[in-house]
Design a protein that fits this description.
This protein has 2 domains: 195 residues, Peroxisomal Thiolase, Chain A, domain 1 (3-Layer(aba) Sandwich); 138 residues, Peroxisomal Thiolase, Chain A, domain 1 (3-Layer(aba) Sandwich), CATH 3.40.47. Helix content is 37%, strand content 25%. It contains 10 helices and 13 strands. Strands 5-4-6-7-1-8-13-12-11 form a 9-stranded mixed β-sheet, sandwiched between helices. A two-stranded antiparallel sheet has the order 2-3. The protein has a two-stranded antiparallel sheet with strand order 9-10. Strand 12 and strand 13 form a beta hairpin. Helix 1 packs antiparallel against helix 2, helix 3 packs across helix 4 and helix 9 packs across helix 10.
Length: 342
């Protein structure tokens, strides 16, 4: 079979906001009277993040969903174009050579969508196949990569995956609900793209993908469309669910390739929050140094939903050897991919 190999990556970030400044300038007043809110912001592991709509400058919490979706298209197009162009340039590929363009997002929708608009703007071919991976949440990059990899293997044509998330467009009205405070303390905006090519001799080969969904905990993490944007539901029990499944998922992923945990050179773990990284570290028996890239991305970029794990993977660009990519989201769902040197 033709190998699917990741040969290029690119990312794009909107304006940076400081965590303390956004607390002092907006959320301290937004959550006035909710004593736990300040503690949650301080313990989030986030120092800086990115936003197309900085709440210090503009309060979107009263905007309707239609206005937020219009803003999404306006802001996502230049970010997506920059990320995809960067990935194609890194791979040495022209837009006209792309056979499949997949877009993953859970923060905005329009028809024609980013896939159609960006394909035309970038000069991708008229016979291009397109795929929208919608509303899967923080783990969407991994099933997106899996689908792109399957296309590359089956059709022997290059493909591009773009993840683009603008969570700042979904700031919610002030309510005394701690899950909303956690979401507002963590989430951020970004775009990232990967180029996957058939049989390339450079880059990282997609060797395996494993998924695990615990449907009994489906209410632990939700992302609901409301009249005032999309609203996060987040249970504090999410790390406990990960405790039950992360070891089995990684064991299944590595055993099929004849590898052990100690053989993995790099861990690109989605930093859903500090406790998520603690659980993965402890359950897999990893040293804290193995979490460094994920904690660094959380601190400098926040939780950018599906984009985040690709930013962590970018941090591991110079790592030589097997890399495990892991992400988690609604379902509750765990996805993991194994990348090996081409």
């Amino acid at each position: 079979m033709t190998a699917a190999v990741v040969t290029g990556a690119g990312s794009a970030l909107p304006a940076t906001i400081d965590q303390d400044a956004v607390w002092d300038g907006f959320f301290a007043g937004h959550y006035a009277g909710l004593r736990a809110a300040r503690r949650i912001f301080r313990s989030s592991g986030v120092r800086r993040r990115h936003a197309v709509a900085n709440p210090v400058d503009e309060d979107l919490s009263g905007w309707g969903t239609g206005a937020r979706m219009q803003r999404y298209v306006e802001e996502a197009l230049p970010l997506g174009k920059q990320a995809v162009a960067g990935a194609l340039d890194a791979a040495g590929l022209s837009p006209g050579e792309v056979g499949l363009f997949a877009v993953a997002t859970c923060t905005g929708y329009a028809t024609p969508g980013l896939d159609i608009r960006l394909a035309g703007d970038l000069g991708m071919p008229a016979d291009l196949q397109r795929l929208l991976v919608g509303h899967m949440g923080c783990y969407a990059a991994v099933p997106g990569l899996s689908a792109v990899g399957d296309f590359v293997t089956a059709r022997s044509r290059p493909a591009v995956l773009l993840c683009c998330e603008l969570t700042s467009l979904h700031v919610q009205p002030a309510r005394a609900e701690l899950d909303q405070v956690v979401a507002h303390a963590l989430f951020s905006d970004a775009a990232a793209a990967l180029v996957v090519e058939p049989g390339a001799r450079r880059g990282r080969r997609l060797a395996a993908v494993v998924a695990r969904t615990d449907a009994s905990t489906a209410d632990h993490m939700t992302w609901d469309v409301t009249d005032l944007g999309f609203r996060m539901g987040l249970s504090p029990r999410v790390p406990d669910v990960l405790c039950r499944h992360v070891g089995d998922v990684v064991d299944q992923l590595l055993t099929g390739a004849g590898l052990r945990v100690e053989d993995v050179a790099g861990w690109a773990v989605h930093p859903g929050g500090p406790r998520i990284l603690d659980v993965v570290r402890d359950e897999l028996g990893l040293g804290e140094d193995r979490m460094a890239a994920s904690r660094r991305v959380l601190a400098e970029h926040g939780n950018c939903s599906s984009v985040t794990v690709l930013l962590v993977l970018e941090e591991l660009a110079d790592v030589d050897g097997p890399v495990v990519v892991m992400a988690f989201g609604p379902g509750l769902t765990l996805y993991a991919a194994l990348l090996l040197p081409a």
